[in-house]
Amino acid sequence: EKHSNMEFSKTAYKKSALHALKHGSRDCVGLLIRNESKIIDAIPLFHECVVGSALDAAFHMIQDFYLTPNPSYKIVGVYEASVSAKTTKFMSSTYRILDVIREMSLSAL
């Protein structure tokens, strides 16, 4: 499924930007949620080192309280804000989060 021109809601844009601004001295990472037509929300996750158990707990809470009641909502991506303007690589925590998203997508098939 290709979403090269996915539209962002104002809510998703503002929440991800405000997460980064609030924790400007730390790396920030969160999830992007879409419905059938656009990215509708951003869920801030971490602004510190990501621990596996905390990541698992976050995904379970998002699934139980956000995705299950709204079957058309899907996790479709990750946003990150690095404190280093010079970096061109994703943070290691982003790769871990993407792996969890990939596993969730495969188990949903």
TrEMBL record:
Extract one GO cellular component term from the record. Answer: EMC complex
Checking InterPro entries in the record gives:
EMC8/9
User: Which domain of life, per UniProt?
Assistant: Eukaryota
**Could you tell me which PANTHER family the record lists for this protein?**
ER MEMBRANE PROTEIN COMPLEX, ER MEMBRANE PROTEIN COMPLEX SUBUNIT 8_9 HOMOLOG
By what name is this protein known? Uncharacterized protein
Which organism encodes this protein? Euplotes harpa
